[in-house]
Amino acid sequence: MLLKNALTFCHLLAMALAVGKMLDYDVRFLWTVHTRSTPQRLLDLERTKSTMTLALIALWLSGAALVYVGHTQNPAYLMNEKLWMKVFTVLVLTLNGWLMHRFAFPVLQRGHAFLELPVFHMLGLTLFATLSSVSWLYASFLGIARSWNHTAPFGFILGVYATLILVAGGTAMLGITLLRQIHMKRPPFSHPADTDIEHAGCPH
User: Fold this and answer.
1) Is 42 helix (H, G, I), strand (E, B) or coil?
2) Tell me: the pLDDT tens digits for 59-111?
3) Using CA of residue 23, residue 24, residue 30, residue 35, what is the dihedral sign?
4) How far apart, in whole angstroms, are the C-alpha atoms of residue 157 and residue 82?
């Protein structure tokens, strides 16, 4: 019992750390999408990426240990379809994170203001970030949705997840497109950060 409680605590701590860091960075990033980044913001990006990578590793390790302990105590533990939906969500998080490191960050590190990126790149990166945010939050929700244990079918839980992604993704892309149009209509101006910038970015 002590081991299971300790693993649950570590699991929840990793999740809370990742979600808190993600939301904190995203809010601050939205205030700066119209400007080029500064060295300090680049450093903040790297720290956020490192924190969330470590949190994801901790989530996998503690989650795998919890599944093992749960199965040894009750073989029916693995029959919980909500459990497999949570595994699927974390798999999506892992794949999305790899794709962001492989394709998204090189674009963001060119030093341009986010709203001045080519439309295809801007919307693609917005979708990457939205998928990451929805997945982290949904995985957190599944962790506390005890009423779904052994009751909610996988298809239903997956449907909720897909709906959230579609709604959040569509809303985010519409919002960032409107911000881009407003930004492009403004007369050009010189920003202090433009003289010493080399990189820009948005983690997850």
Assistant:
1) helix
2) 999 999 999 999 999 999 999 999 999 999 999 999 999 999 888 877 777 77
3) negative
4) 7
